């Protein structure tokens, strides 16, 4: 999943902290240490956990299971559940009060495909260079999964005894079908809350490399693909008729592309616009962000924000044509034309309602609408603006990274969090990872993560988990 970023904060190449010693991590790195984070991250990245032939997600799950056993977990408290060519992992550290809902640490073990011929380095051969760890999954999201897990191992070794159980729940197909994601959420629907380490993160200043702000994610838009189809009898191109499938579909697509859904805010995005404005270099855009937070019907603010592609998706639902196909011969009237419209739906709106709105906008009765793969996504409300969680996360961030601003955010979707939220379980993107916007290559070439995150990231998880699991 793409993590939340605000945009460039300058230019430069300094990274948070210093980690050259970690590049020489021993194969026998001590449990619960920064060196183990690097060693285990490299081992996980080297496993090609990509859907399809040769999928090694099960091997990643076994690697993590063995690590947890060495860190003090009983085999009986760890489950690896195979499903087709993948698997998911659930590991429980039992709290002293089993009646309390657990704290869940969520991440995923699978990664998107990466072709070695396209990369400067082999994507599944982890490399440490200049303080960065390179490889597929470095930022999405094997490093984050390992950082949280090793931090938990260290917390257990410290003698801490949680009141609430702490559950590690790592899915195996978040990047594709999300079937294991849904299964895990169903099993853990009694959770107090979920900390999704594959959601939100901290931002490093581009010039100084120092932490600029940290964002937590409390909501995400619903992902949906809608297929539009027009069919008719066709005929010879020399005898054109008004009911041309391609022309009718094109008219509908042009209207949808030009349509703008009503702008809106929720508690999460209101916090984002109000606070993120301080990091906006353009005074006009900063003023528009503040004005929109106060009044989402402010026409002047909306006009400014819609002029920025990075902001359009933050102020409401978006639907855009992404694929089109039609016709069967150069000299024949088309018998069929199809298109895909991709939507990112603001929380609180059902997909059926969006289809109904699109049909009204298209105003072409011949166009038939249907959803593609509806079983892979679910509409979910925003998590509540939980002030206890925000306070705990703020203390953890400040203890680890200093007194920096804390900003709420809403993702464009989709992550494992949606399955929990759909069941009424609050889920918050809360990674202990900081990056520059310019270093974010999730799903792209030469994916990497700065190793300076390790030590402060472990401090962050230690502080956060101690507080959340103690009451």
Automatic annotation (TrEMBL):
> Which terms are listed as keywords in the entry?
Hydrolase, Metal-binding, Protease, Signal, Zinc
Tell me, what is one Gene Ontology molecular-function annotation carried by this entry?
A: peptidase activity
Q: Which InterPro entries match?
A: Bact_exopeptidase_dim_dom, Pept_M20A, Peptidase_M20, Peptidase_M20_dimer
The UniProt record lists the keyword Iron-sulfur: no
Q: Where is the Peptidase M20 dimerisation domain?
A: 219-365
Signal peptide boundaries: 1-23
One biological process GO term for this chain? Answer: proteolysis
Q: Which family does it belong to?
A: Belongs to the peptidase M20A family.
Q: What's this protein's name? A: M20/M25/M40 family metallo-hydrolase
UniProt source species: Allopontixanthobacter confluentis
């Amino acid at each position: 999943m793409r993590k939340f970023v605000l945009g460039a904060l300058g230019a430069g190449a300094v990274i948070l902290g210093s980690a050259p010693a970690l590049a020489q991590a021993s194969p026998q790195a001590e449990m619960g240490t920064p060196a183990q984070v690097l060693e285990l991250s490299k081992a996980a990245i080297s496993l090609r956990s990509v859907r399809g032939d040769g999928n090694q997600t099960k091997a990643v799950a076994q690697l993590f299971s063995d690590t947890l056993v060495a860190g003090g977990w009983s085999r009986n408290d760890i489950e690896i559940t195979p499903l087709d060519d993948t698997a998911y992992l659930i590991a429980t550290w039992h709290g002293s009060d089993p009646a309390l809902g657990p704290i869940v640490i969520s991440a995923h073990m699978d990664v998107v495909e990466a072709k070695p011929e396209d990369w400067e380095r082999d994507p599944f051969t982890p490399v440490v260079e200049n303080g960065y760890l390179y490889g597929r999954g470095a930022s999405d999201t094997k490093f984050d999964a390992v950082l949280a897990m090793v931090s938990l191992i260290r917390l257990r070794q410290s003698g801490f005894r949680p009141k609430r159980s702490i559950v590690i729940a790592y899915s195996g197909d978040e990047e594709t079908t999300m079937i294991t994601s849904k299964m895990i959420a169903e099993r853990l629907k009694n959770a107090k809350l979920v900390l999704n380490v594959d959601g939100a993160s901290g931002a490093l200043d581009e010039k100084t490399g120092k932490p600029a702000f940290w964002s937590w994610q409390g909501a995400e838009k619903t992902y949906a693909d809608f297929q539009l189809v027009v069919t008719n009898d066709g005929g010879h191109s020399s005898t054109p008729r008004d009911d041309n499938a391609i022309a009718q579909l094109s008219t509908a697509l042009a209207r949808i592309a030009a349509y703008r859904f009503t702008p809106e805010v929720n508690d999460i995005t209101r916090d984002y616009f109000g606070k993120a404005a301080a990091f906006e270099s353009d005074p006009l855009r900063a003023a528009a962000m503040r004005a929109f937070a106060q009044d989402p019907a402010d026409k002047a603010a909306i006009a400014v924000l819609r002029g920025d592609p990075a902001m359009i998706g933050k102020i409401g639902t978006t639907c855009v044509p992404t694929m089109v196909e039609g016709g069967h011969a150069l000299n024949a009237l088309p018998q069929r034309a199809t298109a895909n419209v991709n939507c990112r739906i603001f929380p609180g709106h059902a997909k059926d309602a969006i289809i109904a709105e699109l049909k009204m906008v298209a105003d072409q009765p011949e166009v038939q609408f249907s959803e593609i793969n509806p079983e892979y996504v679910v509409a979910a409300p925003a998590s509540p603006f939980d002030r206890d969680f925000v306070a705990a996360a703020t203390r953890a961030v400040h203890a680890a990274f200093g007194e920096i601003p804390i900003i709420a955010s809403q993702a464009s979707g989709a992550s494992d969090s949606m399955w929990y939220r759909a069941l009424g379980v609050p889920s918050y993107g809360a990674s202990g990872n900081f990056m520059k916007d310019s270093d974010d290559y999730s799903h792209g070439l030469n994916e990497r993560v700065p190793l300076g995150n390790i030590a402060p990231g472990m401090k962050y998880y230690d502080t956060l988990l101690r507080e959340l699991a103690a009451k």
